[in-house]
Each structure stands twice: as structure tokens, then as C-alpha cells.
């Protein structure tokens, strides 16, 4: 009879441990989702700012149509992207296009001196800083989540309960382009 109670006690302890580990993994997964939603909010603000920036530049740099079209195309692609991997790839392309657009101001002193352009450039810089902070928070949440599902004993049942590895918000191949300063040609 006492061995039955011991077995029942062991089963209850294991069940409580599994419930606790499951709840921890759910909390970590929710943190990842919330962190990606934060990035999404910042990217929406960035996407909303871009048409104003493009229109301001159009007035001064009418013969730079290719650069302006590249920014609009990159923005549209970024807005329709789904999931961290696709979003990070399209946002990398958008950042590169925006870098070329901002570099145009060096070639057009009147544009560079325009108060509206300066305000938009300041807002864009502020949003870029917020996006960078949100990316760091997201990647930290992903790291904690991935660590949580790979550590024992949670690793023994995490896959069976539907917890799979999440991808980091990585710029991938665009990283080299974004780390280079845009070239200005006169």
C-alpha cells in the first residue's frame, strides 16, 4: 500500500513539474510574440513616415526618380512581409534604400536646409533608434525562449507540446550593406 502512495507522489511531483515548465515556456513564447509586436509598431510608424519623406525629397531632387522609386518599392515590400525572417530581410532592403535617400540631401543643399526635411529626418532617426532597441529586446526574448526549450528537463517534452525554435531578427545578407556609409556622388 505504501509503494502505491510513493508512486502516486512521484507522479504528482512529475505532473507539477511538467505544468510549471509548460507555463514557463508559454510565458517565454508570449514574450517573443509581444516583442515582435513591438517591432511591428515601430515599423508601422517608419512606413507611415516614408511617404512624407519621399514627397519632400521629390520637390528638390526630381531627377533622382530611381532612388525615390526604390524607396517606395522597398516600403511596399516591407509592409507586406510576414514573420520575423521575411520582415527582417525586407526591412534591411528598406534601410539600404532609405540610406541612399538620405544621402541625396548632401547633393542638394536646399533640401538639406529644408525645415520639413530636417524634421522628417529627425523623426526617422528617432524611429530607427526605437526599432534597434525593439530588435534587441526581441532577440533577447528569442534567446531566452530557445534556451528554455533546449534545457533539460523541458527539452524532453517541449517539442511534443508544440514548442519549436524561433528565429532571431537578423539582417542577414543586408548587414554588410547597412554597415557601410552611403556613397554620395556629385
Automatic annotation (TrEMBL):
UniProt-annotated location(s): Membrane
InterPro entries reported for this sequence: LemA-like_dom_sf, MamQ_LemA
Main location: membrane
A Pfam family of this chain: LemA
GO cellular component: membrane
SUPFAM superfamilies: LemA-like (SSF140478)
Entry keyword Electron transport: no
Keyword Transcription included in the entry's annotation: no
Membrane-protein topology: Single-pass membrane protein
Keywords: Membrane, Transmembrane, Transmembrane helix
Family, per entry: Belongs to the LemA family.
PANTHER family documented for this protein: PROTEIN LEMA (PTHR34478)
Name of the protein in its database record: LemA family protein
